[in-house]
Design brief:
The protein has 139 residues and is an alpha+beta fold. The chain has one domain. Helix content is 42%, strand content 17%. It has two helices and four strands, in the order ααββββ. A four-stranded antiparallel beta sheet has the order 1-2-3-4. The protein is rod-shaped and about 100 Å long. The termini are far apart. The relative contact order is 0.15. Keywords: Membrane, Transmembrane, Transmembrane helix. One of its GO terms (biological process) is type IV pilus assembly. It comes from Chitinibacter fontanus. This is Prepilin-type N-terminal cleavage/methylation domain-containing protein.
């Protein structure tokens, strides 16, 4: 009797099933990962706003009034508050001092690029808000 040879390898159907399973898993995992990255960048911006608020509170402790300069960009905010440095690069958020009087202030982080629509606010009385596009509304 002749010996039969067996072929090694995978059939086309088996390969297509594996490709289909991988594509299903990727279609679930990638949006979840992007959401996680977006939320983590927004949380880092929230920490930056808290750090900026601590600089305001420190100035208040020294002079019994908050700094009254408003800003519209991260660069001018950093120049006004020399002890503050954001942890993220400027491409993710634009930090500004929206309102500043001797007794009140409001700090804002506005999302840029892929984080557009994510706006975080922190006021002198520790009122914090975030738009839902940040992945959270309270912090």
């Amino acid at each position: 009797m002749p010996k039969t040879e067996t072929e090694n390898g995978f059939t086309l159907i088996e390969l297509l099933i594996v490709v289909a399973i991988i594509s299903i898993l990727a279609s679930i995992a990638l949006p979840a990962y992007n959401s996680y990255v977006r939320k983590s960048k927004a949380k880092a911006a929230a920490a930056d706003l808290t750090s900026l608020a601590m600089n305001f509170e420190n100035a208040y402790q020294k002079t019994l009034s908050y700094p009254t300069d408003t800003t519209t960009s991260t660069a001018t905010t950093k120049s006004k508050m020399t002890n503050w440095q954001p942890s993220l690069d400027n491409t993710n958020f634009e930090y500004s001092i929206t309102t500043a009087t001797a007794s009140t202030y409001e700090l804002t982080a506005t999302g840029q690029g892929s984080l557009s629509g994510c706006d975080l606010k922190l006021k002198h009385d520790n009122t914090r808000s975030a738009t839902s596009t940040c992945g959270f509304t309270k912090w």
